[in-house]
Input
Amino acid sequence: MEPPPAIVIATRDRAASLTATLERLARLPERPEVVVVDNGSRDATVAVALGAGARVVALGTDRGAAARNVGARLVDAPLVAFADDDSWWAPGALATVARRFAAAPQLGLVAARVLVGDAERLDPVCAAMERGPRDALGHAVHGFVACGAVVRREAFLAAGGFHPRFGIGGEEELLARRLTARGLRVRHQPDVVAHHHPSPARDRQARRQREVRNELWTRWLLDGPRGAAAATGRALWAARRDDAAARGTVQGLVGLPWVARERLAHGP
Output
C-alpha cells in the first residue's frame, strides 16, 4: 500500500470550524499525518489543533497561502494534500490519489472534485475543470481549488510553492503553471473527492480584490507582452463596473515594481 499524503492546513482565527475539520480528518481510514500552520490567530485555534493531536506551527503572523509551504517543508511524506479549516477529504480519496501518483511519476498535482456545503453542489471551478481536455491522467488544468489539491512535495517546493505575496484567493494558477513549465502534469481527477463547507465569516469583497490582483500578477509574471496586455485590459474593463475589481486592479498596479524585478531575475 502506498503511504497516504500528509495533510497541511493553513488557518487563522477559525477555532470552531477547525475543530470540526480535525474531527473528520481523524476518522479517515488512511490515518494521515496532519500539520496545522497557524497564521497568527488570536482565538483558540492553536489550542484546538494541539488538543486534536495535530502537529502545529504557530507563525505569529499572517503569511496567507504561503503558510502551506511551511507545513510542506516539515513533513517527510512524498505527497502533501491541502485542506482548509473548513474542508476535508472524503474517506478513501487519499489512498486513491497516492496510487495515482505512484503509477505516474510525471504527475505534479491532482485537483480533486470539491463538493460544497450540505447540498454537496459541485464547486464552479471544478465544473470548469471537468470541461477541460482529458488524457489518461485526467483533465489538464491551469488552475485548481487549493483545499482540494494534492501535490508531489519535492516538485511543489522546487516550484516555489505558493507565492508569499499572493495571500488567499487566486493563488493557485501561478503554482499550476510553474509545475507545468517544469514538465509535470497538473490534472483534475473527478473521482478524487474533497468536501468544503465555507465559513460564513468571509470578506467576499476582499477576496475578490485579491483574485483580480493575483490574476494580474500571474499574467505579468508568466505571460508574454500580448497576454499580459490582454489581461490588463480585461481587468481595467471590469474595474469600470465592479468596485472590488477596481481596487484589485489598483493593488495589482502598485505591485508592478516587484513583479518586474522578479520577472527580470527569474524569467517567466
Observations:
- The first helix runs from residue 15 to 26.
- The chain has a mean pLDDT of 96.
